[in-house]
């Protein structure tokens, strides 16, 4: 499955982005793309939906990640699908997921306010 997906992406970097946005939901006023993994994904949305595209990076320190059970695995965690967006993207919001739920909620509030504005709420 991974090889098939990589072959598709190599032939057409926007394949999965286009597939996701061609559904009936394409008329939605707000999209949340929860798992962009490559620069080509971010670039595709900026190119095709530039005026309304906003980017959010959620990160945690390696120490926090280890406390949550993460173990660095060479050949997986150093691949483009895991670290391809670590540089070269100007994020609209950077969310740190290292602290308490209250810390996270306060960071997410700005994004929620933006979405509510887009929806006319």
UniProtKB/TrEMBL annotation:
Pathway assigned in UniProt: Isoprenoid biosynthesis; isopentenyl diphosphate biosynthesis via mevalonate pathway; isopentenyl diphosphate from (R)-mevalonate: step 2/3
Transmembrane segments: none
Highest taxon above the source species: Eukaryota
One Pfam family named in its UniProt record: P-mevalo_kinase
InterPro entries tied to this protein: P-loop_NTPase (IPR027417), Pmev_kin_anim (IPR005919)
EC number: 2.7.4.2
EC main group: transferase
Keyword Isomerase listed: no
GO biological process, one term: cholesterol biosynthetic process
Keywords: ATP-binding, Cholesterol biosynthesis, Cholesterol metabolism, Cytoplasm, Kinase, Lipid biosynthesis, Lipid metabolism, Nucleotide-binding, Steroid biosynthesis, Steroid metabolism, Sterol biosynthesis, Sterol metabolism, Transferase
Subcellular compartments: Cytoplasm, Cytosol
GO CC aspect terms: cytosol
GO molecular function, one term: ATP binding
Protein's UniProt keywords contain Lyase: no
PANTHER family: PHOSPHOMEVALONATE KINASE
Name of the protein this chain belongs to: Phosphomevalonate kinase
Annotated organism of origin: Petromyzon marinus
């Amino acid at each position: 499955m991974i090889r098939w997906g990589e072959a598709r992406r190599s032939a057409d970097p926007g394949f999965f982005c286009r597939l996701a946005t061609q559904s009936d939901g394409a008329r939605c006023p707000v999209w949340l793309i929860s798992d962009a993994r490559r620069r080509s994904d971010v670039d595709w949305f900026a190119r095709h939906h530039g005026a309304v595209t906003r980017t959010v990076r959620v990160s945690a320190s390696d120490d926090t990640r280890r406390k949550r059970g993460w173990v660095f695995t060479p050949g997986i965690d150093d691949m483009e699908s895991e670290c391809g967006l670590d540089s070269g993207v100007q994020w609209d919001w950077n969310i740190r997921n290292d602290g308490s739920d209250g810390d996270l909620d306060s960071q997410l509030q700005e994004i929620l306010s933006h979405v509510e504005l887009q929806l006319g709420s």
